[in-house]
Amino acid sequence: MFFFPWLKKPKLKRKSKAKDKPKGISKQKQKCPGDEPTFAVSKRLEKNLEEIQHKLGNSNDIVIRSFLMGKENNHKGVLVYVDGLVDKNMVHEQVLKPLIYSTDPTDLIMHGFLKDAFKKLENTSILVADTKEEKCLNKALESVLEGQSLVILDKVPSAWILDTRGWQTRGIEESTENPIIRGPKESFVETLRLNTAMIRRRIHSPDLRIETRVVGKVTKTAVTVCYIEGIVDPNVVKETYKRLNKIEIDGILDTGYLEEFMQDHPFTPFPTMAHTDRPDKVAANLLEGRVAILVDGSPAVLTAPAVFMEFLQASEDYYERFVVSTLLRWIRILSLFISVSLPALYIGVVGYHVEMLPPALMISIAAGRGGTPFPVVLEAIVMGVSFEILREAGLRLPKQVGQAVSIVGVLVIGQAAVEAGVISPIMVIITALTAIASFSIPNYSFASAFIPLRLILLFMASILGVFGIMVGLISIVVNTVSLRSFGVPYLAPITPARFAGIKDTLVRVPWWLMRRRPIRLTDNEIRQPKGQMPKEKKGKPQGG
Amino acid sequence: MQEKISKGQFSKLVTLIIISTVFLTLPRRLALVAQWDSPISLVLGYGAAWFLGVIVIWLSLKHPNDTFIEYSKKILGPYLGSLFGIMVFLVIMNLNILTIRLAGATYIAAGYTQTPIIVFAGATVLLSVWILKEGIEVLARVAEFFYFPLILSIAILPLTVIDKLSLDNLFPLLAFGLEPVLSGAMLAFSIGIEHVFLVGLLISKIQNLDKKVYHQHLYGVVIGAFIILLMVASTIGVFGVADIQRFYLPPYQLAKVVEIGAFINGIEIILLGIWTIASLLEVTIFLYISVHILSQLIYVSYRDIIVPLAYLFLSMAMAPMDNHQVESEFTIVGQFGILPVALLLVAFLVPAQLFYQWKTKQKLGGDSNKEAK
């Protein structure tokens, strides 16, 4: 044997395989598909209970309630649920009570109609609407951890899952991310089903698809993809699922996780997937042919494809009169330009092209700067960074304290710095104007993308003046132009230019003129017929 | 997937290659040759350039899947076709070197005397390499993005100096007969036909190619020529021919005399910004043409030779000689060297195409379109 070791190997292997097998589950193991070792529901209740306890351990929040049912109170059953995730009243009144008082199943079981036990119970005693029979214990336990209740009866080789989910949730409140004056106020919450309901309430179409996947090996988070069949481009849906299915992570706690896994360009500062906490905005995006992705536990909903101009649009644009909305959009575009380039332009002009300033302005700038110890570039960088620190501090602190920090930062430190002659007054004005301009951009993530760009432009302006600014701006344009979101050019409909898109980007024409969807995401681009312009009704002559 | 551009983007690229750096440099060069007749020369020269463009489109539509280098190899034979390609490459290379040098020299002339020219030229080339690495679609989108800001900014400049314009400066026309007009037209033609080579390369990249491309080409040339005409006429109108001949960049001087109310004096800084975009686009388009021609001559992927070729052009543009010397050296080779190539195009390529068509017709039994299908 020493010379022919391979002769022994197969024997050893077979032995070890047999030893590794846990007793009693050998046959049942083969029945349930999946990655983890699985366990089919046994006919013997004790065996099932043993496996449940083995799987769930001694967690305090897991409730395993045994009961007896049937005429003679001789048929055993068990109810399993997670305390806090179920509606206890529902479990007591609509599940446990009918089960204990029920006689039918025992009779059925006694008479050998095992297959129909749960069906009979569902038809006669249990009052829960959403029920499911499950042969695989692992899957059944996953449902328990999602907040459903599990009923297993002795001598019945399947489990019964009852949707008794009901936990404490945050109430629907006004959107904190994009508050508006006119239009719907409600925002998404952390409960997935409530969020999908908010979308469904706005789109009553049977073509609205709400499909759920589970992502996260440990968290097993429900991720829902919404789209409108017939409006969305099927390739976008396919691409969404392709990217979603590729994700392998232990846990998903927010849509931000998905965004980083699913976006087209991981290194650009610009977001290529939009997010919002407004159901009306998601509904509008779905109507334009986009896909929405919801994650259980997150009030932020992702939408894709996303384009640059979308981030400069507010929900209110569509609820206000179009003239006002158009004007507001122009202001936002101007604000974007100011927030990115104003400090750099100031540096460029003061440092390199002071001759283009009118003499009076030149004198007042020079007078303001007289005595300040720092070069203008350093002054701008210090002010820019200080502002970002103040903003961050204001955001992270509780509301009341945050306001106090802002007041101290802006009024006290700013004024003191100017009075002490450390910072010139014009620089305070420039920084304040830049900050206010950046606040007028409706999307926080999008506005944040410009913070590093602003600092880069500032640096470029300080070393190369106008040329540096232009190189910086051109680089931003080249970067944005080369981006795509799920196959759609990021700067669409500006480039590639599309007239129907301009009607809802640079301007906002009246609704009756927006015949086509703004971005070509699908072949189904007509959204309304022509000739809906309201006409004045000719009445009686004045005074008649 | 093959990259494609829309017809609108094609038209905008044509306009931008016509305007690009020319809007800043042409008024002086034209005034030196044609003096008061510069506007007439410009119209004649650009008209002829448009006609040559039409010929190239006609040729390209006969070979919708080929660039003009590829089909010239088909119809002239591999050797003559390649020779034609090499000639075009050399001309465009010279023009590109000149543009790269000019891109930096303009900033130095505008007051950035402490900064070495390579910083400006290098940054421009670097950006153009980036754009080209992203592909023709991105180049077309960059051009489309800058199209309206560029056109509007250049078109508004003459309007801001309308109060300083003197009609007397624009006359007398045809005072020295037809000779200066024709010399000027030749110069304008030699500059105008730069776009023809771009057209020859881009036709095969156009989405849904059909005869509407003639219209798009016409719009592109007309808008571009009109903007240049505005610039030529307004600089002559404000300064007079004698002054323009002295200025290095007359439109830059024009921007300096702008007064809007009592507040804004001189908008040359804006013109400098426009210049950066315009020179970048020109360098990028020329680099695109050169890289494509070379890649089709030596059968390599065009993306692989972008960086080496850009580095070569930059090094040549930084030749240690003064700007005037560079201008005179490269202008002779680049600007007027383009004329024989253009003539070659008409004199050889058109008859050769007709012969090729006849031969194909004979071969396919009467239907010459079968080959294209």
Question: Can you give a write-up of this model?
Answer:
The complex is a heterodimer of chains A (544) and B (373). Chain A is of the alpha+beta class and 544 residues long. Chain A has three domains: 21-162, no CATH class; 192-306, no CATH class; 318-489, no CATH class. Chain A has helices at 9-20, 45-56, 88-101, 104-110, 117-124, 137-146, 192-202, 234-246, 255-262, 279-287, 322-352, 359-369, 376-396, 399-419, 425-439, 444-482, 499-502; strands at residues 62-69, 75-82, 131-134, 149-153, 159-162, 208-215, 221-228, 274-276, 291-295, 301-304, 484-485, 488-489. Chain A has a five-stranded antiparallel sheet with strand order 1-2-4-5-3, sandwiched between helices. In chain A, helix 11 (322-352) runs antiparallel to helix 15 (425-439) and helix 13 (376-396) runs antiparallel to helix 14. The model of chain A is unreliable at 1-31 (pLDDT under 50). Chain B has 373 residues and is an all-alpha fold. Chain B has one domain: Amino acid/polyamine transporter I, CATH 1.20.1740.10. Helix content of chain B is 76%, strand content 1%. In chain B, strands 1-2 form a two-stranded antiparallel ribbon. Chain B is globular. The relative contact order of chain B is 0.21. The mean pLDDT of chain B is 84. Classes of the chains: A alpha+beta (544), B mainly alpha (373). Chains A and B meet through helix 11 and helix 16 of A and helix 6, helix 7, strand 2 and helix 13 of B.
